[in-house]
Fold this protein.
Amino acid sequence: MADWVLHVDMDQFIAAVEIRRRPELAGLPVIVGGRGDTTERAVVSTASYEARAFGIGSGMPLRIAARKAPDDAVFLPVDHEAYEEASDEVMSTLRALPGVVLEVIGWDECFLGVVADDPEAVARAVQSAVFDATGLHCSVGIGDNKVRAKIATEFGKPQGVFRLTAENWFAVMGEKRTRDLWGVGPKVSARLAAHGIDTVRRLADADEAELVAEFGPKMGVWYHGLGSGIGPSVVDDTPWVARSHSRETTFQENLTTPDAVETALRDLAGRAFDDCAAEGRPVLRVHLKVRYAPFETKTFGRKLAAPTSDRDEVIRAAVALGATLDQEREVRLLGVRAEMTMPEGGDPADRTPVRGRI
DNA sequence: TCTGGGGTCCTAGGACCC
DNA sequence: TCTGGGGTCCTAGGACCC
């Protein structure tokens, strides 16, 4: 018996949930995003496999997707509550499996810690259990740590199972681009390339001191290990505790006056505060994010004199920050983030980070 | 082509203290 | 007159993920 990390990832989750409640959509190119209006400023949340065949994918502006889509394509609005419910169905099904530790990392994916001789058999059992309970398909990556399990899933999609361990890491990943690693985005891969590091194998063989000089003590060491598929293997089922809540909006028409900006800030700050208040936790800091048209983003924030549970005080802080914005420029997006104090005994440093990076 | 909304974590650099 | 070195806290900004 050995310890394994399974990464369970729902196939085209959002599109699948929509098709489940509207079976007549099966087989059609289904694109979910924004309010489902292809003339608005919004992006694609998920496209069904049929839509992906036309080059439509997550994050793509809806207007572009509309241009690529065939005549029978169906555009649908995002329905967060429906996906939240479906996610709960999936997670509670998995949590009920005997002998597993479950760590949720998103609406549609999680890690499972299992002890088994035959992890493929466990993976197949997981897929059957999820499909029987929800009618939804998933892919499963098997690894000897979270990094390898997560990356393995991509090779199993759709509806498959793939195992990636120290044994086959370089055979499978060695010649892949660094961008294919979990946690390496366009910026980091470009910086790596500037050091002559373009493949996973070259990252593994790179001089760690050089990476530390480029990326700092933590990230330099982390990226170097990532080249060899090294990562944490502990699956942690400690309930996730939010550090902050935020509300942001992209305006269909840019805001052009300070009054309009203030009105929007009051609304956003109030709603971000309400999420914190719902958890009964005071607000520590207030951050603003502004995107000036056409696309320059700035973020900044302020620590409050003391943690507060006073809604008006949080709103006042957001408005005061907003007064420092450049009044000459049109505002395309506004966001307010409220950072919360940690609950009793909840020091962030004590928890395994599961979002943003592994 | 024109780019959502909700999050997390890391780093650099300045201020301040001893 | 010219000036250390370490530690901590804070803010701004960057990068990534789902």
